[in-house]
Structures are given as structure tokens and as C-alpha cells.
Amino acid sequence: MEVFYINSSVMFIQKGSNITSQEQTVFEQCKHIPTIILFYLGLQFVNMFLGIPGNVMVLWLLLRNKRDSSTSDIFILHLAILDTLFCLIPPLELVNIVYVTTSSTWYVLRFFYGIKDSSPLFLSCICVDRYIAVVHPLTFSALRDRWHRAVCVAVVWLITLAYAAAKCMGNILNFAKTFTVMILATFAIMLFCNLSILSALRKSAPARDEMHPVKKKAFRTVLLILTIIVFNYLPPVALFPFQEYFPQDVFLCYIHYIAFGFMDISSSIQPMLYLCKDISCSRSCCCKSCADQQTNTDDVSL
């Protein structure tokens, strides 16, 4: 039996032993546990209805406030573009999972899945940028106005498009392991950077109650970001390295959809978090200290 993985959704085609399986939709092949697919599709439509307006709003705010932008905004901007593209696919995905048996339309979906798979690369750039700002402020000051962030963005997009094109082909042997390695590496980077930021902020005062209000707010914000990173990316990190230990139908119809459902919903959570931070700052701008607060927290909050 030959199995083709299509990442955020799966259509597995059996050759030779069972020709009729090629005429079944993904939903029919997983009809023994349909609840998981319905759960996954529900999350995808949440992404469409919340993620598209949320990410468009983030793009609008970033482009409007260019003069007051932080160093990480370039990464947030391109992450919002990536997530907006991904949030467009739920209608096509629904049709392909529930109704369509042909494999031709999956080429489009595989390309968009490849784009979403690479989103942790931009998140890692954001985390590294803020890690340097908090833990190594002198180095950050020296690099603040350099062009290296634009170069990083270009490199990430080259990797993203190359990865998406390779996934679109769908015929590269053991290509699924590339995603496993990438998600493990980026998760480790994000976890290290955020824990280091929390540790640095925590050590900035003898006791948490004595911490400066601005630093206390930054501490809580980074703690929230860390929680969301773990919530969104821990399931694929914890499950995918052990996929060989699961029965094939359980992994393809159950584990796969749960892991990517939690990861994909980040396309809605990330812009909502950014917008909540922006609204909070806008309200505090009524106070005289808002400008100072924004300057101190831009590099450690999403």
C-alpha cells in the first residue's frame, strides 16, 4: 500500500490491493470516526470567519502606524499575510474532504498547507528578535536599524515557497519528516526565547510584587504568548515524531486532524492577541505614560 500525506488534511490512496478506495472521499475513508474531521473543519471555518478580518485588521494597523512600528512588526506583517492566505481555503477544503474523490484539486490545498506549515519560521523570528531586545539589549541597540530583518523575511519566504512547492508535488519520499524536523526546531527556539525573556523579566526585581508595572505587564504578556505557543504547537510536536507507533487509520483520521486543528487555529489566535494588545495600548494612551509604556513593551509583546 502506498500512502500520500497531504498535511493539514489527509487523503490516502491505496494502490494494487484495493482499487475502490480511490473512489472514496476522505470523509468516507474516515467514517468510523467522523467527529474528528467535523471538529477539524469547524476550526478551519473559525479561521476563515475570524482569521481573515483579524489578519486584515492587523495589516491595516501595521501599515497605518509605520512611523511608530517596533522592530518585530516586519515579521508580524508577513505572518499576517501568510495567515490571511491560509484562511481562504476552508470552502475548497470542505468540498475536497466531503465530496470530491479526484486528487487533482489537492495540489492547490497542498500548496497552502505548505505555506501554513512554515508559519512557525516567522514566529521564531519574532521570538528571537524580542529575546535579543530583552536579554542582550546592547546587541539589539547595535542591530536595531540594520537591514538584516528584511533579509530574514526574504529567506523565510524563499524557504516557505520552496517547501510549499515540494509539498504540492506530493511525490517526495519521506517528505513528511521535513515538517516534523521543522516544527521541532522552531518550537524549541520559541520555547527557549520566551522562557529566557520571562526569566530576565522575573530577575529584574527582587520579588514579583516589586516589579515595575511596565515590566510586570510585559511579563504577563510574554507568559500569555508562551501559553498560546504551547497550546497551538505542542500537539504536533508531541505526536508527529511517534506516528509510526499509531495504527495507520488512527493516525490519518484521528491524530493528524487533532494536531493540525490546534496548529491551524493559530491563524485566528495570533491576530486576536495582537489586536487586544493594540486596543489595550490605545486605551492607556489617555494617560501621559502611554508613549513610554509602548516603547518599553513593543519588543516583548505580540
Q: What do we call the CATH homologous superfamily?
A: Rhodopsin 7-helix transmembrane proteins
Radius of gyration: 21 Å
Largest sheet: none
As residue ranges, the low-confidence spans are 1-21, 286-302
Number of helices: 13
- Distance linking N and C termini: 45 Å
Shape: globular
Order of helices and strands: HHHHHHHHHHHHH
Mean pLDDT across all amino acids: 80
CATH class value = Mainly Alpha
CATH architecture type: Up-down Bundle
Describe this structure in words.
With 302 residues, the protein is mainly α. The protein has a single domain (19-297), classed as Rhodopsin 7-helix transmembrane proteins (Rhopdopsin 7-helix transmembrane proteins), CATH 1.20.1070.10. The protein is built from 13 helices and no strands. It starts with 25 loop residues before the first helix and ends in a 5-residue tail after the last helix.
Annotation keywords:
globular, about 300 residues, mainly alpha, Rhopdopsin 7-helix transmembrane proteins, about 70% helix, disordered N terminus
